[in-house]
Amino acid sequence: MPKPLIGLTTYLAQAQWAEWELPAALLPAAYVSCVQAAGGRVVLLPPDAPEAAPDVVARLDAIVLTSGEDLDPELYGAQPHPCTGPPVRERDRWERAVLAEALARDMPVLGVCRGMQLMNVHAGGTLIQHLPETVGHHGHNLHGGHFAPHAVTTVAGTRIGALLPGTRQVATHHHQAVDSLGAGLVVGARTADGTVEAIESTRHRFAVGVQWHPEMAFDSAVVHALVAAARSAPAAAPGGAGERKVRVRPGSPQVTGTAPVS
Q: Most buried residue, 107, 140, 163, 231, by most Cβ within 10 Å?
């Protein structure tokens, strides 16, 4: 059986390698290694025109919305905080379109850090723009450019709770977090200070977001679960190369390509 094809979204940033310094579509290699170790094939999805999302997503078996820059606060009806980074609207538009198309097809989705926040905003939720002001410490982002461990406790009865029961250390690096929860989502994990560390959809087969970085542990149960869900995805529809049948849980509303914002 062919390995499932997993699409990973990427940065679009100025980068330097060897004697070159040029705009580049890039992603930390840990993401690629983690998905490959879990049994998936990787395709990188740099920002593109939103209207390209249906064609791109139709060729895949699952999506990983990766980490990166702060989301544009306009997406959730807020003014930018002084500590919020400059918006990268091209990436925001592309990833919202990819997410909407994947959810409409009930394709497995994993959101990591920024990706989890995007899932929440897409569902109409909001974000805390600078977490230290809310929790009173910098434990979620101790050192710029370095991951730090902290403990998360999963919620019994959730998918994340079944995959990672109890309390465990995870790799963290974020200064924003979920504030109000989007429609159709439930909390899957928190830290001791109450910060939401995982969310998941009640309307889809597998739509999970984690605030931490599972790619930093190559035996991650979360990534293995995504790949397993991708393997069990509906087969390609007859008569349409690469087209996949949409399968939505009975009674679930069909997700459209327009995301609600608060």
A: 107
Residue 139 binned pLDDT confidence (cut-offs 50, 70, 90) = confident
Dihedral sign (CA 185, 259, 101, 47): negative
Active-site positions? 113, 213, 215
32, containing H or E segment = helix 29-37
Architecture of domain 5-231: 3-Layer(aba) Sandwich (3.40)
Query: What are the structure tokens assigned to 192, written together?
Result: 């001791």
Domain ranges of the chain: 5-231
Beta bridge partners, 177, equal 128
More confident residue, 3 or 244: 3
> Tokens standing for 169?
């250390």
Collapse the DSSP code of 228 into the 3-class scheme (helix H, G, I; strand E, B; otherwise coil) and give the result: helix
Helix, strand, coil percentages, rounded to 5, for the chain: 25, 25, 50
- Residue 254 has what pLDDT? 33
Structure tokens at 215: 């790619």
DSSP character at residue 236: B
> Which of residues 246 and 119 earns the better pLDDT score?
119
Say how many C-beta atoms besides its own lie within 10 A of residue 19's C-beta: 5
